[in-house]
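Instructor's aside before we start: the two examples that follow are unrelated to each other. I chose them only because their records fit on one page, so don't look for a connection. First example below.
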Amino acid sequence: MAVFRSGLLVLTTPLASLAPRLAPILTSAARLVNDTLYVHLQPGMSLEGPAQPQSSPVQATFEVLDFITHLYAGAKVHRHLDVRILLTNVRTKSAFLPPLPSSVQNLAHPPEVVLTDFQTLDGSQYNPVKQQLERYATSCYSCCPQLASVLLYPDYGSGELPVEPLDVPLPSTIRPASPVARSPKQPVRGYHRGAVGGTFDRLHNAHKVLLSVACILAQEQLVVGVADKDLLKSKLLPELLQPYAERVAHLSEFLVDIKPSLTFDIIPLLDPYGPAGSDPSLEFLVVSEETYRGGMAVNRFRLENGLEELALYQIQLLKDPSHKENEEDKVSSSSFRQRMLGNLLRPPYKRPELPAHLYVIGLTGISGSGKSSIAQRLKGLGAFVIDSDHLGHRAYAPGGPAYQPVVEAFGTDILHKDGIINRKVLGSRVFGNKKQLKKLTDIVWPVIAKLAREEMDQAVAEGKHVCVIDAAMLLEAGWQNMVHEVWTVVIPETEAIRRIVERDGLSDSAAQSRLQSQMSGQQLVDQSHVVLSTLWEPPVTQLQVEKAWDLLQKRIPKMPSGP
């Protein structure tokens, strides 16, 4: 059967009966759709009979909110799918609701196929039912002109499950502000305006639950705060966060898709309170278990400033059963960023001028990042390692290729009595003086690059296929021009300072000055092909390096082996 990029899944089974069948239904849909899967809830709708079915409002109850959470939680096993539950027909109990739209709703990815769980009497692909399904889909949403249709029953194996509605409610996932016990059939209250906030990096299903609940509660406007700048500093692996504009673009497309009738105000979140702390027109705030205390702090802040408290809706975290030992046990962007470590982030450079059959990695990172320990791990896996510091010592040594030019440029007072260049004196002469520093690097960097080329020839002579240039100043020196890939080791600045102080005996301020004189981790990552981190225990770092090495071996043969 054909596979489609985008699809629309129309669910017609009552929710209580649908929940236990959801996993096989999603599996069947995932075999047919490989990118975006829209989901439209219309429980109780029949596709048999002469009359064309019409979209009707679905009462927003806590059972519906729990089902939406359940669906997104179940969809996480299909990682290739971008699932979006459409909310236009899900209505709260409010007097100020606008009528259901009579026009067709545009979708960012018009469905190429419409699927349904609707069961025909004999389980066949009954054409009149498929025609009704296609008519219904095109009356609600913008679909591709050549829309295909598939009845998923009996492919999802409903025969193994009870057909009668089950009385067992779904686990409660939404906790309203009121301490009063809630029942599944209890209607959800609607509000004019509300807010939700987060980092929204690599929009995932836990984000979608948070946003969907906020969209159901809001009837006119939803303010969405997106963490930026100072609020990102404490994030794990912040260098791998999507840029703010990219996060907003994905967020905006998702929100407009699921509920286009709302006005969305997406703004940068620069402090813990954001607009929720100061906007008198807001009525509710959706938070997760993790950010509930922050929501309470927002309400205290509002009361202190003469504003009414917001109704807080707390969403339970989605568990991630496939998380690894050093990852969070919830569905989180932090875990996604950890899983990026060792992966190829952009295409390698083609370097036909480098020695044939030798693949060159440039390894860099801020001071204290653990770059040299990564180099040694790569050496243990079979790489030929070129240490640029050692090459620097060779270049500066009496008789070395940089010795005479440096002495002529900076004078004999930089020499020890035995004629060796005193690198501390030389360093103090150029530190903080851009002109003097450039004079020095213009002499030394080309020399080290030439020595590195000679070392590459030695690697070839030894029969090595991978060569690693370990160089803190790789990008500043422009040495990316002689590597196929740049690999960067990242570490939080606070940890880097701690390591420098411990290793070199410097003060905190001296360590910080050293880091400020280098490119930042973010600047390095922006030009990198692979990112690694030594933030965790050594066995975790080793697994990370082995993963990167194994992936490297798979792509080396694909690279040109010469001019």
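Example two begins here.
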Amino acid sequence: MFLSRLRSRSRLGHSVANHVKLTAISQRLATPACSRLMSTATQKKQEKVEERTDHHAVVSTFDLFSVGIGPSSSHTVGPMRAAKIFIHDLKTHKVLERVHTLRVDMFGSLALTGAGHGTPDAILMGIEGESPDQVETSTIKSRVQDIHTNHSIRLDGTHRIHFNPEKHLIFNYFKSLPQHPNGLRFCAYDSDSNMVATNEYFSIGGGFVVNEETQLDHGENVYYKQEDKDGAMAERRQQDIAVVALPFKTADELIAVCKRENMTIAQVVYENELRWSTPEEIRTKLLKIWNTMDESIRNGVMACPTDMLPGDLKVRRRAPALYSKLLKGLYGPVKTSTEYHTNQIATSTIPMEEAIGHPDDHKNTFPMSLSVLPKRQRKRFFLPALDYLSVYAIAVNEENACGGRVVTAPTNGAAGTIPSVMKYYLEFISEHPERDVMEFLLTTAAIGMLFKRGASISAAEVGCQGEVGVACSMAAAGFTAVMGGSVDQVENAAEIGMEHNLGLTCDPIGGLVQVPCIERNALAAVKAIAAAQLALNGEGDHRVSLDQVIETMRQTGVDMMSKYKETSQGGLAVNVPMC
């Protein structure tokens, strides 16, 4: 599938006259008379992409995992980065000072669920020059309020212009740009209302942003998370054709490389990462990713248990109370089977009639079920793995819902699954924490690369299977790897993790990344452990391959109705009232 369409918008690098001229041209290109030209151009571009067989799946681990803010990587992190890129380009082409006002249009999913995902606020912060990994989250609310009150904003934090968010931030609820559901259009105008510059950006999931220069060629990994492209190495800008030590396009190729080189998946990714970073830089950045994940768990469980999550759903934080119960041991001690069944009918020598009475004894009892099947007293249920996995995942996603700092893993909506599984392993199983962190993250990154190239990690494109489903698959692979599983078993675990998330829809109630998103991460963490156990108890032989399930996921996403793709127009979003 080739997602790219002929672009009719001008590039930011053109002169003012060219921008105005090309805008007029774009209007003419929209007429039926030009449809054949557009179709021909698209066909030629498709043929060009098909000819390029050297594109691999390898991208930097630190482009796949990145530090950002909640609640959404595609609707918060991506739009903030897009706004910053646009403002940076205005500076680069020396037209920033000429800008008198801006207009920002949000299309498709960004418009439909943007308010609940914090998209407008993220755009405003990006315009002011902030980046997701460095913005001080505690100041965002007051700064946004100031912009709304004073009807002005500072481009790159320096050039103040007139800007009324109610007027200049446009929600196009019933329009989508053809390239991707998460579309943004920025237009800058001078004091005479002449257009100075314009560009369109697409937030394709995981915080990645593409525009006209990068296009949206399906499977082309030209994605890197740096606003200033001139400041990025050429190999980072064209990662899919960069010369890496051990390239791979598919899971089968990855396994073949591992077996040929007698290496683990983590070792293959590490060798490729040396293309862009030194060994010490790799170590430092991997530990920073984990420390951010761990901090988001800590913040989530240590929050006030009476706090409510933002938005009209009025959802209360659950992680603090759940964690408190775990620490206090209120779930009770683990009982053996004999202890559990003491005085129960299953192990009792008392005859059945004495235990429940003779049927004649209940002739005058109505209803009879009250005496035959009396209501049970509540039992204490204790499964440490499930309890800790759940509370860790919930903690991260509640932090994400509050706009806190999290790691895209591979997205914000799925940010709790991988940290939860890692935290559980490090606390209860690990003997070499630092080494295990590196192996876990590098292994999960490889699986994420395969999904990113072969399908998508954008819920607006393929539903929640592309976010929580991918996170579950990645976590299962990482857990299997650090448990000493073979390469085949790691691939098997990743396949199981996704196979049983196929078709998962994205239907957030009220456009908020809360219900069902938070609990869904907890269930994905538990499912990842189960997938790993199944794989570890086998020999790696299985009927369905990871490559097959990735392609199935892509096809399922294509066939899925748009109302189930992060639009809040179907599913729980329309069947659960907000009040």
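The radius of gyration is 26 Å.
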